[in-house]
Amino acid sequence: MAKDLAREIGYIYVDTGAMYRAVTLFAMRNGLFDADGNVQEERLKELMPQINISFRLNEATHRPDTYLNGECVETDIRTLEVSSRVSKVAALPFVREKLVGQGERYCHGRQRHRNSGVSRCRTEDFRNGKCRDKGAATL
User: Fold this and answer.
1) Which of 28, 34, 102, 107 is deepest in the core (most CB within 10 A)?
2) Which pLDDT tens digit goes with each residue over 23-60?
3) Is the CB of residue 57 less than 8 Å from the CB of residue 72?
């Protein structure tokens, strides 16, 4: 509902859940989960600078898609495998610190409605590059 509302009023929806899912997907792709589903915390912490998360407007849906290191991962981050592991990644203080800070800075100092995921960066600003990196939320 928030995504639809944001689209209707011309704002960009900042999907912070997608950001945690992207970090989880990165950890999975880099073999950072053991057989019991635990994440190798120290190794993930070392690799965090290599993670670049951005949102780019999908012209067909008029909604932002999630990109991980330049690759659209919108479908990949919505799998059951990612869903079953994301809470362990989201609970890590260094991940939370990085993503919470990024979410707050997402749209170049524009206000964000708390808990709604809706940034006060209008869609036309997003399209015209007035938002930092054309809407990129970069770690």
Assistant:
1) 107
2) 999 999 999 999 999 999 999 999 999 999 988 888 89
3) no
Number of helices followed by number of strands (H, E) in the chain: 7, 5
**What token pair was written down for 137?**
């939320």
Burial 51-63 (b: 16+ CB within 10 A, else e): bbbbbbbeeeeeb
What is the length of the chain?
A: 139
Structure-token match 């792709």, residue found: 29
- At residue 134, what are phi and psi to the nearest 5 degrees? 50, 45
CB neighbours of residue 93 within 10 Å? 9
User: How is residue 63 written in tokens?
Assistant: 């909604």
Tens digits of residue pLDDT in 68-114: 999 999 999 999 999 999 999 999 999 999 888 776 666 554 444 44
CA-to-CA distance for 60 and 73, rounded, in angstroms? 16
pTM of the model: 0.74
CB atoms inside a 10 Å sphere around CB 139 = 18
